[in-house]
Amino acid sequence: MRYPPFEIERFFMRHEFSAPYAISASDCEPLTMDEILALAGPERREQFERMWLGYTESLGHPELRAAIAGMHAGIDAGHVLEVVPEEGIFVAMTGLLNAGDHVVAIHPAFQSLYELARSSGCEVTFWRARDGDDGWTIDIDELETLIRPDTKMLIVNFPHNPSGLLPTRADFERIVELARRHNLILYSDEIYRFAEYDPAARLPSACELYERSLVLGGLSKCFGLPGLRVGWLITRDAELMRACQDVKSYTTICGSAPSEILALIALENAEALIARCIDIVQSNIEVTRSMIDRHSDLFRIHFPRAGTVGLAELTADAGVSDFAQAAVEGAGVMVLPAKVMQFEGNYFRMGFGRRDLPHALEVFESFALDYLR
Ligand SMILES: Cc1ncc(COP(=O)(O)O)c(C=O)c1O
């Protein structure tokens, strides 16, 4: 099978480790090894130091699977498959979809969420998030019109990358009901879940509501641990689980032994790590708000209610792709433009999770004023 270039990954490959400033990162400030080990109790610390560096259990470390299950109502360790987050998308799409299947996918989206379905020979219909006066919106009546008798899977991602959109609970339940009524596999990417600024806004996980859902989660975003490469797929459907396990045997086979123990330490300290993330994000949102208020003739944004990302619009008379190119070349600021995320409009992604965002925004602001005025 051939896969088209993953535009966002190409972009990050080119700039992530050379541009000194990032305003579009999707992760929360990564922890250092010292910081994560400082959270470990003496037993985990000893377990980490004495760990055997052999192959690990292919479904994931039993304690880790139990800890992940414990974060989801009605789920047990048998419903959990440990994966690298991106691998979770790969095993789900390649394991469950066949050429000729019809798939409905939210758009814009992290490219692999729809590209792998296309590469598998599926017909993909986009369910488009729209920029409304009061925030990004999705239309569930429209979703209903997109579902066909041959639709096999519905792909959603809330909190949404890149817009930050988080539906109401009632709307999310309507989406789940639609999936149920049409017997669809509901692929729910929840990798930005747990970082709702108001805990009451947290949606139930799709795996808690619907048996034929497949949920992706992981430690890359709100837990600040993307370098561990630890994520999970959850489903209560044994057939879906089996299909994903089978593909995993062709990808990583099993998880990384050190990462599994570090992931356990992270989940035992989940509340503190999530609070840390929300703290950083909320403070960065205020700094960004001030910057945008100062230049409301140039930029516009709906701030998210959850997660680490949002979409800003460049309302000045300039194309965002050229603007982003000039920003990275001229000022060393990495700005992710809409085109790299394969959608139209003069938007760029804002990432609120990095501690140095206030400084990066100062450099960005001074570049933007020179370039745009
Ligand atoms: C919605 C979504 N799902 C999955 C992933 C994959 O996570 P990772 O890059 O840690 O594999 C990402 C990464 O940006 C993402 O935004």
Q: Roughly how many Å apart are the termini?
A: 47 Å
| Assigned CATH architecture of the largest domain | 3-Layer(aba) Sandwich
Count of domains: 2
| CATH superfamily heading of the largest domain | Type I PLP-dependent aspartate aminotransferase-like (Major domain)
- Shape by Cα distribution: globular
Structural class: alpha/beta
Radius of gyration from the alpha-carbon trace, in angstroms: 20 Å
Assembly state of the chains shown: single chain
Strands in their spatial order, largest beta sheet? 2-10-9-8-7-3-4
Helix content: 40-55%
What does this structure look like?
- The chain is α/β, with parallel strands linked by helices and 373 residues long.
- The protein folds into two domains: 7-32 and 271-372, Aspartate Aminotransferase, domain 1 (Alpha-Beta Complex); 42-268, Aspartate Aminotransferase, domain 2, CATH 3.40.640.
- It contains 14 helices and 15 strands.
- The N and C termini lie far apart (47 Å).
- The model has no long low-confidence stretch (mean pLDDT 97).
- Bound molecules: pyridoxal-5'-phosphate.
- Residues 26, 84-86, 89, 110, 157, 161, 189, 191, 218, 220, 226 line the site of pyridoxal-5'-phosphate.
Record the SSE blueprint.
Blueprint: H1 7-15, E1 21-22, H2 33-38, H3 42-50, H4 62-70, E2 80-83, H5 85-96, E3 102-107, H6 112-119, E4 123-128, E5 130-131, E6 136-137, H7 140-146, E7 151-157, H8 169-181, E8 185-189, H9 206-209, E9 213-218, E10 231-234, H10 238-248, H11 257-268, H12 270-294, E11 299-301, E12 309-314, H13 320-331, E13 333-334, E14 336-337, E15 347-351, H14 357-372
Parallel strand pairs: 1-13, 3-4, 3-7, 7-8, 8-9
Antiparallel strand pairs: 2-10, 5-6, 9-10, 11-12, 12-15, 14-15
The chain binds pyridoxal-5'-phosphate.
Pyridoxal-5'-phosphate (PLP) is lined by residues 26, 84-86, 89, 110, 157, 161, 189, 191, 218, 220, 226.
